[in-house]
């Protein structure tokens, strides 16, 4: 059921403490941790503690928690990258590069980024 932990979800296991992660921030509704395959000098993920497969379904079902994820993304970026600028990325669907189907924001910083991405 949407919102409920999924036994086969890597990020649900991180939330429950069953899989280790380098946590940089945690709130009542979110967990932020370093990406194990960083694509920039600063690369953290912010995930909701509730399970939804992607950002769109999270926002539709629980807009306050989606806002919490976005707010924490800004806090993590400030903590990890100061005021140097950052990028927030939500990959939604396999075609967009999503590999873990639990909503999450990528926080990227510490280098310049081109536009368009990809």
From TrEMBL:
Pfam families: HIT (PF01230). One of its GO terms (molecular function) is catalytic activity. InterPro entries: Histidine_triad_HIT, HIT-like, HIT-like_sf. A motif (Histidine triad motif) lies at residues 102-106. The active site is at residue 104. Residues 10-118 form the HIT domain. This is Histidine triad nucleotide-binding protein. It comes from Streptomyces luteoverticillatus.
């Amino acid at each position: 059921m949407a919102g409920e932990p999924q036994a086969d979800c890597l990020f649900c296991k991180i939330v429950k403490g069953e899989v280790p992660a380098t946590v940089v921030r945690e709130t009542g509704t979110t967990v932020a941790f370093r990406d194990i395959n960083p694509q920039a000098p600063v690369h953290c993920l912010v995930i909701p503690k509730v399970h939804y497969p992607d950002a769109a379904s999270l926002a539709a079902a629980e807009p306050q928690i989606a806002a919490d994820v976005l707010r924490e993304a800004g806090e993590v970026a400030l903590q990890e990258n100061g005021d140097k600028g950052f990028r927030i990325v939500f990959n939604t669907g396999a075609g967009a590069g999503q590999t873990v189907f639990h909503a999450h924001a990528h926080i990227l910083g510490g280098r310049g980024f081109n536009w368009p991405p990809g």
